[in-house]
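Good day; I would like, with your permission, to put a structural problem before you. What I wish to show you is a protein chain and, alongside it, a tokenised description of its three-dimensional fold. I would ask you to consider whether the tokens describe a fold that such a sequence might reasonably adopt. You will find the record immediately after this paragraph:
***
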Amino acid sequence: MRILVVGAGSTGGYFGGRLAQAGRDVTFLVRPARAERLRADGLRIVSPHGDVTLAPKLVTAGNIDARYDAVLLTVKAFSLDAALDDLAPSVGPETMILPVLNGMKHVDALIARFGRQAVVGCVCKVATMVDDQGRVVQLNKLQDLAYGEINGSPSPRTRALDEAMTGAGFDARLSPTIEREMWEKWTLLATLGAITCLMRGTIGEVEAAPGGREFALGLLGEVCSVVTSAGVAPSPAFLTATEAAVTQHGSPLTSSMYRDLLRGGAVEAEQIIGDLLVRGRDAGISTPLLSAAFVHLSVYQAGISAA
């Protein structure tokens, strides 16, 4: 199976790197500056599961001259439009596009551009970052990649995909409930991001503040109300685990959006929070806490854009 990984940052660099390390046929679609650094230094992964430096196969926009069996789309949501133009030549009638972007808005964009048949559901759970040296650094041992047909039906193509992903150095699984998992991940990201960004602290710091626990649970309730109305309701087990995670005493847990904010980087406020607000308004659901978080992040985003 020929696999194109769009992006070689924290997520694409990690999963694509592990696939390449395991001998899979992987090519990375990257920007020229990233390509230059990767050619000079290699794709370097620092991980509790073992460090590795690879010499990856690279291609830049405008130089794709073949179709791929699978495209792992790992860019940030605000880079999606440009990425779709760049990867379009790689997509043929049988190509599977596996997006691991945050939220669900990108699914509509992919279907509109390439058709429903091209899109395979995908969820990744990994904590990684690109450090100042350009290395992909894994922050803990979690490294789960799930995929499957969005309608839940088994198919020959996803079974073939599963064969390519299994045994590549991370936890890979073919899921019959991938759509629900995608909505659940959005639920967690929106809740965790809104809590930590609005309150500018870890989960443990928020929980320790007067009213912090109630605030966290209230925000989770708003997000779940929207998700249940607009998408697929979270499972009881997921809700129990998430309630515990966002109220855990002393927890150092934050969100990637909060870490981006602390570094002064762009945040996916529109995709993670704003799109939920739109869906909530369409369903007539009141979301005052989520709205406050979005205003806060919008003010921040405007500030860094003007700088």
